[in-house]
Design a protein that fits this description.
With 200 residues, this protein is an alpha+beta fold. It folds into 2 domains: 108 residues, no CATH class; 79 residues, Nuclear Transport Factor 2, Chain: A. It has 6 helices and 5 strands.
């Protein structure tokens, strides 16, 4: 196979890869672009803060063992979830002399429980920050669990591939190669200048 034919086939493959990677990543780019704006202008895009208060009681045999290793963490957490519709992941379980403090976290969501060890009585505060709080936490990967963390890594790799295939594609376009690379270099220079002038 001659060199020109190989170049044409390679260019066609890179173009095909770039187009379909771009279409797959379109929603990702839109999501991270919009949430980047809401995070960068947090004072204008504030989530609606809602707070709920609940009271309840757990079996004191789960909470009041003198041996703290015998405090029934599993039953405490599961009962709190079932009785109050708590979601999110368990973030903290702290044992003090007279009190247990249990915290659940999720995107735009927090549930904090304070339990009196002697009686099992508890006070629960659930705080939500609306959809803006949810998408901002998803953007940052905060309190989102391992699954979303993997998703962010995959999204980052996908966007990197889109950028690389775009750069490769411009190398095959002789008439636009120089101007394309010049624009890419200008973009890098612009970022560096912003950093040097306004940040460093």
């Amino acid at each position: 196979m001659d060199k020109n034919k190989l170049n044409r086939k390679t260019a066609m493959f890179v173009r095909w890869l770039h187009i379909y990677l771009s279409m797959i990543s379109f929603a990702l780019v839109l999501f991270f672009a919009v949430t980047g704006l809401t995070l960068n202008h947090a004072e204008k895009f504030t989530g609606e803060l809602h707070t709920q208060q609940h009271k309840g009681r757990l079996d004191s045999t789960w909470t009041n063992s003198k041996d703290t290793t015998k405090i029934d963490r599993l039953n405490i957490v599961e009962q709190l979830r079932q009785a109050n519709g708590i979601h999110g992941s368990l973030n903290d379980f702290r044992i003090d002399d007279d009190q247990l403090a249990v915290a659940f976290k999720g995107p735009g969501y927090a549930a904090d429980v304070f339990i009196t060890r002697a009686t099992g009585a508890y006070d629960l505060t659930i705080t939500t920050t609306g959809w803006i709080g949810v998408v901002n936490d998803l953007h940052k990967g905060r309190d989102t669990g391992n699954g979303w963390s993997v998703f962010i890594d995959v999204a980052a790799l996908l966007l990197a591939l889109v950028s690389l295939t775009g750069l490769l594609l411009i190398l095959f376009l002789k008439k636009r190669r120089l101007s394309g690379l010049a624009v890419a270099a200008a973009g890098l220079l612009m970022g560096w200048l912003v950093y040097k002038i306004w940040i460093k």
